[in-house]
Write a structure and sequence with these properties.
Helix content is about 40%, strand content about 15%. By secondary structure, it is an alpha/beta fold. The strands form 3 sheets. A 6-stranded parallel beta sheet has the order 3-2-1-4-5-6, with helices on both faces. The chain binds uridine-5'-diphosphate-xylopyranose. InterPro entries: 6-PGluconate_DH-like_C_sf, NAD(P)-bd_dom_sf, UDP-Glc/GDP-Man, UDP-Glc/GDP-Man_DH_C, UDP-Glc/GDP-Man_DH_C_sf, UDP-Glc/GDP-Man_DH_dimer, UDP-Glc/GDP-Man_DH_N, UDPglc_DH_bac.
């Protein structure tokens, strides 16, 4: 099938590349000339494991093209994906200006006899498919086109891509949600997604509004799970229980499930914070006070600061002149994304208290440098960060931090002190090696 993807950000690029991988002809459109130039020359513009390889192959084989022209991009396409940014506006709602602008432009380009399906891929508030539909209709009416609704259908098909495993999530989705009442669109999209659900996972058809809400409900529920566990971790510390045990005990109940029960120093990224806020906001606009979501956000903000009192208390509230080694800057492993990353909050608070920070992250240092520059020092590797530091703080659970050389850590740090925001190490290990060790929801190990 011929497909156009409008917007070559994270979602657009993964979507376009993965559809090309199953043999479709994909044209990606972006207004950013530099980006289009780079992509056309075979270079991927985001970091995502596994993407580069299939991107290069499909580009070389002519199934993946790039252009800045919307007209050229959609010329042959039967299916048009909108993967445009929906940043939070001033009050936390998703800003639809990019989506609606493209919808208007599409209305100026659609032609009779050339039916197209226009798909919202980005996370957009409930009712957006209707707004996109009406915007396109309006443009067609202004062009005096008869029966304009026959020219197109607007469908909601939200993405569920986790950064770091987005290619896998796209190629083998747990489910595909398709929101439309159009039988024609259902048939075409069912065929498009067939290769991705061969293992038997469902394509679930529903109306547009339910599809739009499904995305927010899924992300908000996952964020709720995390905040809930973070509160259980708070209780564990106060009751002398171990959150790892509680997590395993709870998670074995199939109704609860083992995943997304890991406490830490809060969720970050481009999705959870934005989506929880947007759902809470649109609930309010609809006259409903979604109390749980307000609490989820508040708990998460507090959790980002969870390690700070422990650090301050260890240093008797005096961090002036102290050197802190920081492992991990990205909001989670396998990404260079630092949006809403808990590490940034830690850095700001520790620096404000007079500490100097030497950080290491396998992928995200460039982005942090762009954002905060020389507020901190950047190390070449995880061990270099430790040299003469007064303590190690861990903010992201990169695999390479999980089984480090503890003897080396001890020899490089001034004192063997670790504040672990991701519970990477077993308590017995820390005891054996003689570390002062504070983590989340588990007992402290003091030396
Ligand atoms: C998420 C959703 O999973 C994906 O389906 C969606 O469409 C986009 O948002 P992503 O933001 O890439 O994906 O990351 P994810 O792996 O889901 O983790 C989100 C955050 O939750 C991270 O900050 C992570 O550290 C945190 N987290 C996750 C926990 O604190 N504990 C857990 O048990 C799981």
């Amino acid at each position: 099938m011929d497909i156009a993807v409008i917007g070559t950000g994270y979602v657009g690029l993964v979507t376009g590349t993965c559809f090309a991988e199953t043999g479709n002809m994909v044209t990606c459109v972006d207004i950013d000339e530099q980006k289009v130039k780079k992509l056309s020359s075979g270079k991927v513009t985001i970091y995502e494991p596994g993407l580069e390889k299939i991107f290069e192959r499909n580009e070389k084989e002519g199934r993946l093209k790039f252009t800045t022209s919307l007209q050229e991009g959609i010329k042959d396409a039967k299916i048009i994906f909108l993967a445009l940014p929906t940043p939070p506006d001033g009050d936390g709602s998703a800003d639809l200006k990019y989506v609606l602008r493209v919808a208007k432009d599409l209305g100026g380009l659609l032609e009779r006899g050339d039916y197209k399906i226009i798909i919202d891929k980005s996370t957009v508030p409930v009712g957006t498919a209707d707004r996109v539909n009406n915007t396109i209709l309006q443009s067609l009416i202004e062009r005096n086109i008869d029966n304009p609704q026959d020219l197109f259908d607007v469908v909601s098909n939200p993405e569920f891509l986790r950064e770091g495993v987005a290619v896998e999530d796209f190629m083998k989705p747990n489910r595909v949600i398709i929101g439309t009442d159009s039988e024609k669109a259902k048939k075409i999209l069912g065929e498009l997604y067939a290769p991705f659900v061969r293992q038997g996972n469902p394509v679930i058809f529903m109306d547009e509004r339910s599809a739009e809400l499904t995305k927010y409900a899924a992300n908000s529920f996952l964020a709720t799970k995390i905040s809930f566990m973070n509160e259980i971790a708070q209780l564990c510390e106060r009751f002398g229980a171990d959150v790892d045990m509680v997590r395993r005990g709870m998670g074995s109940d199939e109704r609860i499930g083992k995943r997304f029960l890991f406490p830490g120093i809060g969720y970050g990224g481009s999705c959870f914070p934005k989506d929880v806020q947007a759902l809470a906001k649109s609930a309010k606009q609809a006259g409903y006070d979604f109390k749980i979501l307000e609490a989820v956000m508040e708990v998460n903000e507090n959790q980002k600061k969870h390690l700070l009192p422990k650090i301050f208390s260890f240093f008797n509230n005096d961090l002036k002149g102290k050197k802190i080694a920081l492992w991990g800057l990205a909001f989670k492993p396998n990404t260079d994304d630092i949006r809403e990353a808990p590490s940034l909050k830690l850095i700001k608070e520790l620096a404000a208290a007079g500490a100097s920070i030497v950080a290491y992250d396998p992928e995200a240092m460039i982005n942090v440098k762009e954002e905060i520059g020389d507020m901190i020092t950047y190390a070449e590797n995880q061990y270099e960060a430790l040299k003469d530091a007064d303590a190690l703080v861990i903010a992201t659970e990169w695999s390479e931090f999980r089984t480090p050389d503890f003897l080396k850590i001890k020899s490089l740090l001034k004192k063997p002190v670790i504040f672990d925001g991701r519970n990477l190490f077993e308590l017995y290990q820390m005891e054996e090696h003689g570390f002062y060790y504070e983590s989340v929801g588990r007992r402290s190990i003091k030396i």
